[in-house]
Recover the amino acids of this structure.
């Protein structure tokens, strides 16, 4: 394993557990305060709307500045926000509006953090080991998705949500230490003429538009981002309104989702030498849609758990494959901007999906939220696949 990647990976091991503790703590806190899936959807929207608005600008920043310095800034800022949220809950001054403000600020930080983190991986692991590195990152992310919600649920049940946020703040010290020890010699930034930001954004968009593989991948990611990856709204709403569960039930279900994702990440890591295939991304998206639909048709905790395990497995197969396709098929000078577009259509599309999902869960029911999400993914992904198959035939004829 590459020395720099090892430092980065080990730092993330501790930090991501704290992140998942905060994620479930924040969602359950808002649902407890408001008792409204729609307002929970607004929270998710507010947290991701900066990514929607500013991702393209962030891509230019990522291509211009050393990525290690950017990550030190974003991780330190996220740590401060975690401590602020913890302090508000400890002091009983927390309100829904305050949580929205913290979520918005965190979204602004993530706007830079996400494309920087994606583009940084290839610098510390190399192109040859990129897919394996992405899979390893996914494995710790999803191991944290298992441990974080489980630990967070117990902490919330016995000590309160404030401790989830506090532990998350402390966990950032590990990733900051790892980043500090990484030696990347200026992050290998190539000297190039820097035009104005708008011109560089247009150049990046034009580059993606003219590459059929990149464009198809990004459109599929957009569909999944809008309609499928709304688990922060779907799962707590389904737990509370359909299964009549509590914090422990919610934590258990998120852990099952993480368990499936962990197995999926390990599977991708083992098969990484074969390289990313568009066929894998397409099949994975179809399976995800089927699992969402089936979940909307059942009211059993055991069956829901099984479906979430399968969903998690194919979530990782899709996201790792699409991420690798984009990075390996992007030129070095465009990678930051390509990954900022990836962040835009993946995380930046979340506000749309969260509002829609929250509204459906609030007015029709949590089961309907799963059904609509799964149906939309199934129809749109098939349409995209057919259109681009025709494009590829035309391009070769």
């Amino acid at each position: 394993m590459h020395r720099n990647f090892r430092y980065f990976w080990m730092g993330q091991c501790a930090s991501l557990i704290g992140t998942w503790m905060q994620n479930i703590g924040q969602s359950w806190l808002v649902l407890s305060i408001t008792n409204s899936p729609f307002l929970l959807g607004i929270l998710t929207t507010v947290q991701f709307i900066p990514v929607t608005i500013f991702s393209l600008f962030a891509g230019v920043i990522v291509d211009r500045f050393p990525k290690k310095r950017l990550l030190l800034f974003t991780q330190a800022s996220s740590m401060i926000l975690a401590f602020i949220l913890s302090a508000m809950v400890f002091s009983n001054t927390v309100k829904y509006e305050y949580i929205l403000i913290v979520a918005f600020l965190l979204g602004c930080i993530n706007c830079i953090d996400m494309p920087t983190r994606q583009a940084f991986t290839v610098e510390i692991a190399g192109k040859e080991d990129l897919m394996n590195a992405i899979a390893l990152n996914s494995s710790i992310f999803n191991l944290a998705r298992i441990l974080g919600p489980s630990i967070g649920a117990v902490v919330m049940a016995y000590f309160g949500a404030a401790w989830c946020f506090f532990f998350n703040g402390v966990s950032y010290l590990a990733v900051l230490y790892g980043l500090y020890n990484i030696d990347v010699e200026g992050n290998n930034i190539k000297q190039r003429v820097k035009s104005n930001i708008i011109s560089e954004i247009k150049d990046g968009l034009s580059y993606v538009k003219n590459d059929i593989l990149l464009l198809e991948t990004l459109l599929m990611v957009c569909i999944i981002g809008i309609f499928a990856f709304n688990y922060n709204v779907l799962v707590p709403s389904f737990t509370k309104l359909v299964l009549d569960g509590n914090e422990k039930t919610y934590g258990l279900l998120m852990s099952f989702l993480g368990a499936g994702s962990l197995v999926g990440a390990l599977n991708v890591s083992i098969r990484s030498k074969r390289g990313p295939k568009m066929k894998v991304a397409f099949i994975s998206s179809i399976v995800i849609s089927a699992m969402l639909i089936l979940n909307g048709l059942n009211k059993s905790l055991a069956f829901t758990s099984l479906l979430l395990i399968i969903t998690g497995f194919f979530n990782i197969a899709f996201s790792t494959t699409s991420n690798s396709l984009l990075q390996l098929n992007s030129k070095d000078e465009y990678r930051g901007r390509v990954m900022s577009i990836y962040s835009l259509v993946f995380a930046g599309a979340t506000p749309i999906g969260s509002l829609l999902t929250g509204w459906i869960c609030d007015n029709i029911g949590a089961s309907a939220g799963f059904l609509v999400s799964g149906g939309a993914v199934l129809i749109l992904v098939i349409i995209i696949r057919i259109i681009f198959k025709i494009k590829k035939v035309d391009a070769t004829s």
